[in-house]
Amino acid sequence: MTAELITWLHEQIDADQVAAADQPPMSWLPEELSPDNPLAALYSPARTIAMRRDLLAAWRDSEHAGTHDHDSVDWSLRVLAATAYSDRQGYREEWAPADDEPA
């Protein structure tokens, strides 16, 4: 994993947090879900952002995060970059996870 990818991911997550703060309440919910649906919390931008920040924290300190498999965390960050942010400026194809990396 490169320091550039980690820095870039931090920037993307920070941008997500700013964008989420500018959204009207509940605008992030799919049309078929109402705010009182138990599944609504799964779509919360704050929850998504927190999970992504936790993944970055696990990369920095895998033992503290409760995992001892740094390769798996590395792979997960590459998948996050490729699936959530590959359409954003600055993404590099070299960051994509290799087919033979751990799942």
- The total strand number stands at 0
Which residue ranges are poorly predicted, with pLDDT under 50 across at least 5 consecutive positions? none
Number of domains as seen in the coordinates: 1
Instruction: State which percent range the strand residues make up.
Output: under 5%
Basic shape: globular
Helix content: 40-55%
Give structural notes.
The chain has 103 residues and is mainly alpha-helical. It has one domain (3-21, 40-95). It is built from 3 helices and no strands. It has helices spanning 3-21, 45-60, 70-84. Helix 1 (3-21) runs antiparallel to helix 2 and helix 2 packs antiparallel against helix 3 (70-84). The radius of gyration is 15 Å and the shape is globular. The chain starts with a helix and ends in a 19-residue tail after the last helix. The relative contact order is 0.16. The model has no long low-confidence stretch (mean pLDDT 87).
How would you describe this structure in keywords?
103 residues, mainly alpha, 3 helices, 49% helix, globular, DUF6221
